[in-house]
Amino acid sequence: MTPDKQAMRRQALQTLRGMTPQRREDASAKLRRMLAEHLGDAPPLCIAVYAPLPHEVDLLPLLTELPQHSYAFPVAGPQRCLQFRTVRCPAAELIPARFGLREPLPSCPIIPPEALDLVIIPGLAFTAGGERLGYGGGYYDTFLPLCPHAELLALAFSEQITDELPTEPHDIRVPLLFTA
Question: pTM score, two decimals?
Answer without folding.
Answer: 0.94
